[in-house]
Design brief:
The complex is a heterodimer of chains A (about 110) and B (about 120).
Chain A: E1 5-7, E2 10-13, E3 19-24, E4 31-37, E5 44-50, E6 53-57, E7 64-68, E8 74-78, E9 87-94, E10 104-105, E11 109-113
Parallel strand pairs in A: 2-11
Antiparallel strand pairs in A: 1-3, 3-8, 4-5, 4-9, 5-6, 7-8, 9-10, 9-11
Chain B: E1 4-7, E2 10-14, E3 19-25, E4 30-38, E5 45-50, E6 56-59, E7 62-67, E8 72-77, E9 86-94, E10 104-105, E11 109-114
Parallel strand pairs in B: 2-11
Antiparallel strand pairs in B: 1-3, 3-8, 4-5, 4-9, 6-7, 7-8, 9-10, 9-11
Classes of the chains: A mainly beta (about 110), B mainly beta (about 120).
Chain lengths: ~110, ~120
């Protein structure tokens, strides 16, 4: 069984650029959640996808968008990058929406915006 | 109202000692309280979780104590080992509209267990 994988591992962008981060969910999981973890902080919920539909969004602007594909992998897109977008972006997959469906986190993508 | 407050920010414990991390929440709609462990360069991993209908849950050296009336919960690590050195996050989730099992995390506690 393959765990949650994310790509790329690290990324450096300049302010105003756009970025796409990718996540492959664990086998058998149909739910993917994205979190932003600033340095020294806890992860903050960005949004969640369940069976290719967005199922909730945190307090992030519309320039943060996402997709989930039929194989349940997912993308996070961020437009018009700002310096404050520098963070570790974590993807978590689970077998459903219930709280007892454990969320398995990937290792994250470290984004640096210069 | 969605916040989870966590303390201390950092903690140094001697090997064999007890590590205690505390969290408090405001929103009574939270009904699931997991603790996550994160090592450098890794994503968080679920350690142990509790629901408000029990006051304590123990798994090996890890125990969650839950005080529903005070809206507080804590993680106790017994016989702390150097391998426990990591960042620990409390979290909470509830049956909110949308976002299914979305987690609201505390700010984290960096634990160091010294020999």
């Amino acid at each position: 069984e393959t765990g949650v994988t994310q790509s790329p591992t690290h990324l450096i962008k300049t302010r105003g650029q756009q970025v796409t981060l990718r996540c492959s969910s664990q086998s058998g999981h149909n739910t993917v959640s994205w979190y932003q973890q600033a340095l020294g902080q806890g992860p903050q919920f960005i949004f969640q996808y369940y069976r290719e539909e967005e199922n909730g969004r945190g307090n992030f602007p519309p320039r943060f968008s996402g997709l989930q594909f039929p194989n349940y992998s997912s993308e996070l897109n961020v437009n018009a990058l700002e310096l404050d977008d520098s963070a570790l972006y974590l993807c978590a997959s689970s077998a459903g929406l219930a709280d007892y469906n454990e969320q398995f986190f990937g290792p994250g993508t470290r984004l640096t915006v210069l | 109202q969605q916040q989870v407050k966590q303390s201390p920010q950092s903690l140094i414990v001697q090997k064999g000692g007890i590590s205690i991390i505390n969290c408090a929440y405001e929103n009574t709609a939270f009904d699931y309280f997991p603790w996550y462990q994160q090592f450098p360069g890794k994503g968080p991993a679920l350690l142990i979780a509790i629901r408000p209908d029990v006051s304590e849950k123990k798994e090996g050296r890890f125990t969650i104590s839950f005080n529903k009336s005070a809206k507080q919960f804590s993680l106790h690590i017994m016989d702390s080992q150097p391998g426990d050195s990591a960042t620990y996050f409390c979290a909470a989730s509830g049956d909110f509209r949308g976002g299914g099992n979305k987690l609201t995390f505390g700010t984290g506690t960096q634990l160091k267990v010294e020999l």
